């Protein structure tokens, strides 16, 4: 069974190389020699001993022993075993040709030597064996025909009646035939196995190629997905930067819509805001010419109506349509005829719906779960930014009102300053020796808090230009002077208020000390006459029903 398996290659699970097949052929042939050669060896040795050719018998015995050793001892290296077999075969061919001549099987042994060399060692070694065999054959022929070697006897040449001769020749022929058949069979089997292995390799390679192509496609899809996610994150980050920079709600919405449309390669993006009644979602801004036309037409949708925006604003949930042609809740907008898929996202801040963000694409099934998540985050950020911008505008309005009130107060306060009794202009003349008298003037306003002018500082100098440092110094002095003047005015106003409070307290005390009418009138007139800038005080008392006929009776003056 082992011999058959070695020949057919059955039981092999792994492919073997050329050297493996050569080792298999060698081992198979050695086993055949042991099986067939043993009988031939015994018969030939007996015949040789009986004929007195002991040396040849010893040669055969030694050759048989060596073949037995290289057949059974597998640890001997392959090339040593092969070389030993070839040497024995070559020696047998020489021995039979020189002993028996052309009637022997020496030529078969020589052919066997050539074929065995080519199969077991390769083409080059086979050619070398052929060359050696040809030279050897020629030398033996020359030696026998030239008388160098004795010619075989007539009995040796005419050995057709010898059974041992027929047996020996038959064994050699059989060995040669078996060698060729086994070699060809093994080679064919090896070729079949190689072709099978090649087919398996091609199939495996095709599977690997298909798997590689699938992996490449998967990697490409993942790369595209990753690039899309990175674009989404960059867009969200850029929108965050815009939100910080822009405080005008209308400009903010327009910039965000344009950015979303450009970055996500969308067909249309728009923002709807709820009106005061919360019944309609009005288009506040939209991208492209279609958006401008709809804003000009005051486009609006009913909250809870048959539209994506209406559904979203009513339920505070995002809604997507992979194919609007198959969507029951969809507003067929004539301004947007190419829309194939739509996503509506609520604008919610502090649990209050401000409106909705609508994004539309010309592709079917354009929005996946990640798109919805990212765009919903952008919508929430936009809602907060819009509310912050609205509050900022309210704050700006309040600040402007406060500035206007403060400006009016300052105008009224400084207009009430007594300029008749006090000269509020001051002049300093400082003419230095050597000055030409050609002066340039400079007027610097006295400004309170950067907006209210309460006066000015006029400067004259004997030069045509003022340096930047001088201008900055003068500006700083004017600012400090304006603050100092305002502080002085406030101090005077406070002092006057204190005086008025003191006078009022004194009058109250005087009134509380007496109940006499004349005394009360005199005390009131006296205290009021002590007020600053008061030159005369008169009090007129008349009955309620006779006010129109007052003539001065019962009056007190000071």
Would you write up a description of this structure?
With 558 residues, the protein is α+β, with helices and mostly antiparallel strands. It folds into 4 domains: 204 residues, no CATH class; 149 residues, GAF domain (Beta-Lactamase), CATH 3.30.450.40; 69 residues; 44 residues, no CATH class. The N terminus and C terminus are likely disordered. The chain contains 14 helices and 10 strands. The N and C termini lie far apart (155 Å). Helix content is 62%, strand content 11%. A hairpin with a 5-residue loop joins strand 1 and strand 2. The strands form 3 sheets. It has a 6-stranded antiparallel beta sheet with strand order 3-2-1-6-5-4, with helices on both faces. Strands 7-8 form a two-stranded antiparallel ribbon.
Search tags:
single chain, 558 residues, alpha+beta, Beta-Lactamase, 6-stranded antiparallel beta sheet, two-stranded antiparallel ribbon, 14 helices, 62% helix, disordered N terminus
């Amino acid at each position: 069974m082992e011999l058959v398996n070695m020949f057919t290659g059955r039981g092999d699970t792994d492919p073997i190389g050329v050297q493996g097949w050569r080792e298999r052929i060698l081992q198979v042939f050695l086993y055949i020699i042991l099986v067939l050669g043993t009988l031939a060896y015994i018969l030939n040795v007996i015949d040789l001993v009986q004929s007195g050719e002991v040396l040849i018998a010893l040669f055969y015995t030694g050759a048989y022993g060596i073949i037995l050793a290289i057949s059974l001892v597998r640890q001997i290296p392959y090339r040593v075993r092969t070389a030993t077999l070839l040497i024995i075969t070559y020696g047998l061919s020489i021995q039979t040709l020189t002993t028996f001549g052309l009637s022997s099987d020496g030529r078969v042994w020589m052919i066997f030597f050539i074929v065995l060399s080519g199969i077991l060692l390769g083409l080059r070694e086979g050619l070398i064996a052929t060359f050696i065999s040809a030279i050897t054959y020629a030398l033996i022929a020359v030696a026998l025909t030239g008388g160098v070697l004795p010619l075989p006897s007539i009995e040796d040449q005419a050995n057709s009646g010898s059974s041992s001769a027929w047996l020996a020749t038959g064994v050699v022929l059989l060995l040669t035939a078996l060698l060729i058949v086994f070699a060809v069979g093994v080679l064919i089997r090896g070729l079949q196995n190689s072709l099978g292995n090649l087919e398996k390799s091609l199939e495996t390679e095709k599977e690997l190629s298909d798997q590689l192509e699938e992996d490449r496609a998967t990697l490409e899809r993942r790369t595209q997905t990753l690039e899309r996610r990175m674009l989404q994150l960059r867009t969200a980050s850029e929108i965050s930067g815009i939100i910080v920079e822009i405080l005008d709600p209308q400009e903010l919405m327009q910039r965000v819509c344009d950015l979303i449309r450009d970055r996500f390669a969308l067909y249309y993006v728009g923002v709807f805001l709820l009106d005061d009644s919360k019944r309609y979602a009005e288009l506040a801004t939209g991208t492209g010419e279609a958006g401008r036309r709809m804003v000009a037409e005051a486009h609006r949708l009913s909250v809870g109506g048959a539209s994506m925006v209406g559904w979203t604003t009513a339920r505070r949930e995002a809604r997507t349509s992979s194919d609007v042609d198959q969507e029951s809740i969809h507003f067929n907008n004539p301004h947007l005829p190419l829309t194939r898929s739509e996503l509506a996202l609520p604008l919610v801040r502090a649990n209050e719906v401000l409106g909705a963000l609508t994004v539309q694409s010309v592709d079917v099934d354009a929005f996946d779960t990640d798109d919805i998540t990212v765009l919903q985050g952008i919508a929430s950020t936009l809602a907060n930014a819009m509310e912050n911008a609205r509050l900022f505008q309210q704050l700006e309005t309040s600040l402007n009102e406060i500035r206007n009130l403060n400006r009016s107060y300052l105008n009224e306060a400084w207009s009430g300053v007594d300029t008749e009794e006090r000269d509020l202009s001051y002049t300093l003349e400082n003419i230095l020796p050597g000055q030409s008298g050609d002066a340039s003037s400079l007027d610097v306003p006295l400004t309170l808090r950067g907006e209210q002018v309460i006066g000015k500082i006029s400067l004259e100098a004997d030069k045509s230009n003022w340096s930047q440092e001088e201008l900055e110094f003068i500006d700083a002095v004017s600012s400090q002077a304006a603050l100092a003047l305002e502080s002085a005015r406030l101090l005077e106003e406070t002092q006057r208020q204190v005086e008025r409070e003191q006078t009022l307290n004194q009058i109250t005390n005087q009134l509380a000390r007496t109940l006499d009418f004349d005394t009360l009138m005199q005390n009131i007139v006296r205290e009021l006459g002590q007020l600053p800038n008061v030159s005369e005080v008169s009090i007129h008392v008349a009955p309620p029903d006779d006010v129109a006929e007052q003539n001065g009776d019962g009056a007190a003056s000071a």
